Amino acid sequence: MKEKESPQVKRLPIWLRRDKDLSGLREIRLRLRQSSLSTVCEEARCPNIAECFSRHDATFLILGDICTRACAFCAVKKGQPLALDPDEPQKVALAARALGLKHVVITSVTRDDRPDKGALTFAATISQVKRHLPQATVEVLTPDFSGARGWLEAVIEARPDVFGHNVETVGSLYGAIRPGADLIRSLKLLRWAKETAPGVKVKSGFMVGLGETEKEIRDLIVALCEAGVDIVTIGQYLQPSRAQREVRRYWEPEYFDVWACVAKEAGIRYVVSGPMVRSSYRASELWEMIKRDAICED
Prior knowledge:
Layout: H1 25-34, E1 38-39, H2 40-43, H3 49-54, E2 59-62, E3 66-67, E4 77-78, H4 88-98, E5 103-108, H5 119-132, E6 137-141, H6 149-156, E7 162-164, H7 174-177, H8 183-196, E8 201-208, H9 214-226, E9 231-236, H10 253-266, E10 270-273, H11 283-297
Parallel strand pairs: 2-5, 3-4, 5-6, 6-7, 7-8, 8-9, 9-10
Antiparallel strand pairs: 1-2
């Protein structure tokens, strides 16, 4: 497979075109509006929203809907956040119960303005979900907490089943794509999560198509393995709107199969890799696979 680099690609390739079933959108949106809750599916303009909402899958967005950072790929609103809603953790739990969720996925905006960087709200939300949905499993996808191990440990102490933190892209692109973030800091956070709670599944993910090389992708996969990651997701970046960075390359589908093999050979057990994959894509199905594997091992 020969690499093809382009400064900007405008035409969407055929393998990324898909019909959308909008039948499930209204019901989920209505439930969320009634609870005054947000989802990253909507705020980040995820291309899989119709598919996921039709299956009653949604990733809750906590700590408000305004991010303190300005990542060039992300459509979530940026600026000065509003005050936290003290009832948000319980609202998430009750909405998850109303939707009949068995695997609850929770993410957030980055809140560098908060002394705890939002960690205590994550912990409270996990606790509330476990209280109102004791049979459900909980997956969190957190920011980097500015590299504070203590705040990471506060989240882990609430006993999520999956702890996720996305590296998003390769190290050479952080300055342009993720100002305020640092790849080494993110890898440390993932390593600390595994050290703090070896039984928790540690998850990370990244996008391609922002200007990285294939070698950088392979090196990042190895770095994630060395950080103790159990689950990795790899997907194609799609520009949410004209306000975000342009796509530099649409990687052909066969590359995603190759990267999945690279990850598994490196030692990452669970890999979800494909052009339309996002960090929480079919997370409940993946958890069912993890549970079946655990039963077989016992």
